[in-house]
Design goal:
This protein has helices at 13-22, 40-46, 62-73, 95-105, 125-134, 152-158, 169-179, 201-222, 231-254, 265-276, 281-310; strands at residues 2-8, 28-33, 50-53, 81-86, 89-91, 109-118, 139-141, 148-151, 183-194. It has 320 residues and is α/β, with parallel strands linked by helices. The longest helix has 30 residues, at 281-310. InterPro entries: Glyco_trans_2-like, Nucleotide-diphossugar_trans.
């Protein structure tokens, strides 16, 4: 049996597309709502979908929502496979069938994912950035994203998602799955359409901050060799977002203000990345965003460690 779990809050028409796309592909569909005020719960129930409403007096994380959906699935006939999907995504018509066949033929694979695409990549440079980010290598992978078909026995073996994580919960769970001998696989197949609805720089900055928080926390949890989870991403954020600008500022104060010219390393880095990407307008846009994101990622990493040292719980970083 195949089931599906969608999570969301105030996704509106995006949730309609999401739930309708699961019809005929899953025997059970569960929607986990995290305090919507736009009628999402009523809309889901009207479609015959099982609804779980999270207790919002407790700190919310997407990991907690997904675990709640998995707990609901265990009340009754437990499925062999479950499709996890974010409420702002539409599952492609033939995806679950292809993915389920792959899991049936490969019993050591715990999770299989495919190509997630942005619904409106032309709407903004930020949406286009997301679309390129989703285009990950085909074959065995280290991690998946929020959309994937998963084997229930594997999820049960590792206890599902870590509900404490405010971001990066899927890659962290994949670390634990791989440590148990399971494999993660990326198929060359269309999986979902995602609507980032990201049209402002501020949204991009928050999303990058969240990524930096996830990198720092992931490295703190699983950064030791041989895993080195998120260690390269954390090092790049620290180098470009903290170490270099601080070093240049110190040199300018101690040696000469002319040392501020060393900040030219950033446009040089953008040019290097753009040339490596082919030199097109899109390559220059991507190179600029990747370089700027390092400052936001560094901020997110600093936030994680400050909260860790002070014992404060991390707050959700939402960009929409």
């Amino acid at each position: 049996m195949i089931a599906a779990i969608a999570i969301g809050r105030n996704e509106g028409e995006r949730l309609v597309h999401c739930l309708d796309s699961l019809r005929g592909q899953a025997a059970r569909i569960i929607y986990v709502d995290s305090g919507s005020t736009d009628g999402s719960v009523e809309m889901a129930r009207a479609r015959g979908v099982e609804v779980v409403e999270l207790d919002m007096t407790k700190p919310f994380t997407a990991a907690r929502a997904r675990n709640a959906g998995l707990d609901q699935l265990r009340q009754g006939a437990v499925p062999d496979f479950v499709q996890l999907v974010d409420g702002d995504c539409e599952v492609r018509p033939d995806w679950i069938g292809k993915a389920a066949q792959f899991l049936e033929e490969n019993p050591k694979v715990a999770i299989v994912c495919g190509r997630r695409r942005e619904r409106f990549p032309e709407a903004s440079v930020y949406n286009a950035h997301c679309d390129r980010e989703w285009d990950t290598p085909i074959g065995e992978a280290k991690a998946c994203g929020g959309d994937a078909l998963m084997r229930m026995t594997a999820l049960d073996e590792v206890g599902g998602y870590d509900p404490r994580l405010i971001a990066g919960e899927e890659p962290e769970m994949c670390v634990r799955l791989r440590q148990k001998g399971w494999k993660i696989w990326r198929l060359d197949a269309e999986m979902t359409l995602h609507d980032a609805a990201m049209t402002r720089f501020g949204q991009f900055w928050k999303r990058s901050r969240r990524a930096g928080h996830a990198y720092a926390e992931g490295a703190w949890m699983h950064g030791a060799p041989p895993e080195s989870h998120y260690v390269p991403q954390t090092k790049r954020a620290v180098l470009w977002g903290v170490a270099l600008p601080l070093a240049i500022l110190v040199l300018a104060l101690i040696v000469s203000p002319w040392c501020l010219l060393l900040l030219a390393i950033y446009p040089v880095q953008i040019a290097r990345l753009a040339r490596r990407g082919g030199g097109s307008k899109a390559a220059w846009e991507e190179a600029t965003l990747l370089t700027l994101s390092k400052f936001a990622e560094a901020m997110g990493g600093v936030e994680f460690h400050l909260r860790r040292l002070t014992g404060k719980r991390g707050k959700l970083i939402e960009y929409k």
